[in-house]
Every structure is written in C-alpha cells, then in structure tokens.
Design a protein that fits this description.
- The protein has 444 residues and is α+β, with helices and mostly antiparallel strands.
- It has 2 domains: 5-139 and 301-362, 3-Layer(aba) Sandwich (D-Maltodextrin-Binding Protein, domain 2); 141-300 and 379-437, D-Maltodextrin-Binding Protein, domain 2.
- The protein contains 19 helices and 10 strands.
- The strands form 3 sheets. A 5-stranded mixed sheet has the order 2-1-3-10-6, sandwiched between helices. Strands 8-7-9 form a 3-stranded antiparallel sheet. The chain has a two-stranded antiparallel sheet with strand order 4-5.
- Helix 3 links the parallel strand 1 (29-35) and strand 2.
Length: 444
C-alpha cells in the first residue's frame, strides 16, 4: 500500500498514518518510511519480488516528500511511536542517531560483501566502525548542461568549471522567451534543500559554517560572495517560482528541455539520459561541480540508506534486516538492470556497479559521479580547518535548525524581501544563539 506525500503532508495525515500503523502492524508486516524519489519508488515497485521470496513477510509503504519524511521519521524516533520498522535516513542522521542509540546496527551475511560498498559512503553511514545504515544509493554533485544549447551559443564547457564561468554561461544561455532558463538551482528552503547547494558554493568560495573556535562565520566575505552569486543567478537566470523548487521539480523541468544548466545530485544523470523519460536525453552533458577559490567541498557527499529504529519488535527487526540486506544487495542491482536496464540501476553505493561493463556502456556520467564521490572528504571539506565533519552539512545536532533557518533567510533574499547582507546577519545571529543554547561554543 502506498501513501502519497500530498496526502501525508499535514500533521492530520501524519496522525492518520499513526492510527493506521498502530492498528495494522503485526509480526510479519513491515512498515517502511521512504522518500518520493525515483530510486525509492522503483524499490517499492520491485519489492514484490522480495515478498515472493519471503511469503511470510508483507510490506507496507509510507512515501513522503523529503522534508516531510524527515519530520515524520524524527517524530516517530523521538516519541518511540513504533510506526515504522524500516526508515530511510541519510549520512547526516546515521552517525548522530547511532551515537544516541536511536537505530540498531545493520547485520549482513558474508555474501552481502560490505567491502564492496564505496569506502566514504560506508564510513558516513557508520559509527565507531559499525554500519548503521545500508545505502540504497549514494551521490555527489555535478554540473549537468545542454550540449546543443552550448554549441548554438558557441560555448565550450570545461571539465572543471568555476562558478564565475557558470554564471557567464547562464547569461548567454538564458532564453525565457523560448522557455529556456540559463540555470536551474534548488530554491526550496531547508538544510537538505537549498542549503545543500549553497553550502558547497560557500565552500568553493573559501568559506565555512564554523571556525576552529566553533564560531559561526556567516559574516565572512566568502559567505557574502557565495550567497550573492546564488541569489543573482536565480533572480536573473532562474525559472519562475524557483524558491519553491527542489530536486524533483527541477528534474522535471530539465527533462522537458527548460534548463540550460543544473548543479545538483549526480543521481539525476541517469534519469536525464533516459530517452523514455527525457526529451533531451541525447543532448545532456556532464562536468564536475563548479569550484572557485578552491575545489575543497565544492561537491557534496550523500547517501539514502535504510535503517531500523531501536525498539522495533524483535520478530519484525529480524524481518527488517532481511529486507534491508536484499534491497541494498548486488542481487537487487541486477534485478533493476534486468527489469529496467543498466542505466536505471541505483549507483553511488557499490564498487562492483562501476566495474560492470554493461553499466559503463550506458552511463556516460559514471566517471564524474564516481570521481566526485571518491574525492569527497567530509573530514577536510573547507579551505580553512573546521571543527566538525560534513561537506554540505555539519554533523552536529544543532545544524538541522540552523540550516533550516538560514535556508529560509536566503529564500527571502532571492524573493527580494531581504538583502543578502541582512539575510546573512540574521543567519549569523541565529546560528550563534543556537550554538550557545546547545552548549557548543568555547567562547560563550
């Protein structure tokens, strides 16, 4: 059974799901909370194969928009509501929740081959060397662009462009009269939405969230330059309604030929290059995520993973381990390839996928994705040393509130309700206050 994000967006819908889960969840039934992106929806469609192999295990799906997923899963964890037996989390939550004892270790057999997982993806989902989230897919970020529009404008995309070059290209490619926008970037506010991209731009300009004294640094010149560029790009060359657009909305725009450039998750490449769903499949080019002052932290590292909340009924926990092992295995990747083709398989998780000749033949973006993932170092992601790990986020609990608030303020800068200077000043104050309230700074 599938629940759409539109029906579950409100807390009323969330409460309905709570009642439903409490009434229907029993030994043999797993309730899985996941995000409404392409790979997770495909997993839901193909999960009938798992049920056929395990006729005593039945699956129920709760599918959410990304921001709502985080609210629902966190609420369930905090209240120990027991709604979900399998939850979809990312590299931000995994180490923090594991350290707090909110999720249990992933147990896999020898045939699972944990060593086949890409090393920094595996490390990002681990705590004290123990895996707490099994990756469905991982990703970095890169620049995707229209080769035909670049040729027509007499432009050539470098393999490693800078943000200054990307901005110049956007100005020349912007053609709203013909429904083409110079650049499409995430504008929807949130630490996992617009700030995912903005933080990598800040990194590229030499900035950071916190210095080694744990002081917020949103008052720095690097933040001003990076956010100023982001705001100017969306105002001058972005699509209408950009401040409400996230990954899925921009993916839909690019597929229909409306974006000349897009910097976002490498996972988008497979969908853009699919001729069955993309009108511009044959004209999509790929380059590294833009840098500027430095390449450090200019491309992110993320993975969507399956985890199990602590306190799950022991029988269902055993079943959940079986499902997670199957869903993140090489066997599942081969199933996707058999049903949908190698261009559709989840990537960014296993070495063996990139080593497969069948995948290499249909994935011209793969080298950029793998290079971006392997080069991404959460422990060394800023030009100046930082006290915390993370690339497009900071792996400390207060960051969630800080990132969300700064994302809202930057959204107001894009809409013209605040200047960039005022947005960053307010963000600096909020970040300082949150750090003080959580007992972090040495300077309090």
């Amino acid at each position: 059974m599938k629940y759409s994000s539109s029906r579950l967006f409100s807390w009323v819908g969330f409460c309905v799901l709570t009642v439903f889960s409490a009434m229907s969840t029993h030994a043999g039934t797993l309730v899985i909370a996941t995000v409404d992106n392409g790979h997770m929806l495909r997993l839901q469609d193909l999960s009938s194969f798992f049920e056929k192999e395990h006729p005593d295990i039945h699956l129920r799906w709760a599918v959410f928009k990304e921001s709502v997923l985080r609210q629902a899963v966190r609420a369930d964890i905090n209240t120990q509501g027991g709604q979900f037996d399998v939850i979809t989390i990312g590299t931000f939550e995994a180490p923090i929740w594991a350290s707090r004892g909110w999720i249990v270790p992933i147990r896999t057999g020898s045939d699972y081959d944990v060593d086949d997982l890409l090393p920094n993806v595996r490390e990002s989902l681990s705590y004290d060397g123990v895996l707490y989230g099994a990756p469905i897919y991982g990703e970095s970020s890169m620049l995707m662009y229209r080769k035909d529009l670049m040729r027509k404008a007499g432009l050539e995309m470098p393999r490693n462009p800078t943000w200054t070059q990307v901005a110049a290209f956007a100005a020349k490619l912007h053609d709203p009269a013909n429904g083409v926008y110079g650049i499409c970037l995430r504008g929807s506010p949130g630490w996992g939405e617009n700030m995912t991209l903005v933080t990598t731009i800040v990194n590229a300009f030499g900035g950071q969230w916190f210095d080694m004294d744990q002081r917020p640094r949103l008052d720095s010149q690097a933040w001003s330059r990076a956010v100023g560029l982001y705001v100017d790009l969306l105002k001058a060359y972005g699509p209408p309604g950009a401040v409400s657009m996230g990954y899925n909305e921009i993916l839909a725009l690019f597929r229909t030929g409306k974006c000349a450039q897009w910097v976002d998750a490498t996972v988008a490449a497979g969908f853009l290059a699919d001729p069955e769903s993309s009108a511009v499949a044959n004209e999509v080019g790929f380059a590294a995520a833009p840098s500027e002052v430095t390449t450090k932290g200019s491309h992110w590292l993320w993975a969507w993973a399956l985890a199990i909340p602590r306190g799950t009924d022991p029988v269902r926990e055993t079943d959940a381990q079986k499902f997670i092992t199957w869903a993140t295995s090489r066997e599942y990747i081969r199933l996707v390839a058999a049903r949908n083709g190698w261009s559709a398989v989840p990537t960014g998780a296993r070495r063996s996928t990139y080593a497969n000749p069948d995948f290499q033949r249909v994935a011209p973006w793969a080298k950029y994705e793998l290079e971006g993932i392997l080069r991404a170092d959460p422990t060394d992601a800023t030009l100046s040393p930082s006290p915390y790990s993370g690339i497009q986020f900071v792996t400390i609990p207060p960051f969630r509130a800080i990132g969300d608030e700064v994302g809202k303020l930057i959204r107001q800068a894009v809409t013209g309700h605040l200047s960039v200077k005022e947005a960053l000043a307010r963000g600096q104050y909020f970040a300082q206050r949150q750090m003080l309230l959580n007992g972090y700074p040495k300077w309090k």
